[in-house]
């Protein structure tokens, strides 16, 4: 099970990719986020937060190019960075549509995998 997401608040390419990390902070106009252990299947017991804060942006566009979560309790959430309220939630039953547009300039991408990945 793997996932990959690209976010783009502007339409010019500056990419920063950190493969295999669990969390991080992004302030660039665009970037790439991979699940832990990507391209291999992510392991159990992950709780990861990536903050994406681009002061000049009015919205942040997420492009989920690859999303593979098969465990029933694993999930990805997009949270408003200022209020921590869930804006979107994705799991094995409700994967993201390809493009997800979040209004605002501060988003937290939360990834959770339970103790037992099947």
TrEMBL record:
Residues annotated as signal peptide: none
Keywords: Disulfide bond
Classification via Gene3D superfamilies: Spermadhesin, CUB domain
Xref: InterPro entries: CUB_dom, Sperma_CUB_dom_sf, Spermadhesin-Link_domain
Domain CUB: start-end pairs: 22-118
Superkingdom classification of source: Eukaryota
Record-given protein name: CUB domain-containing protein
Organism annotation: Cynoglossus semilaevis (Tongue sole)
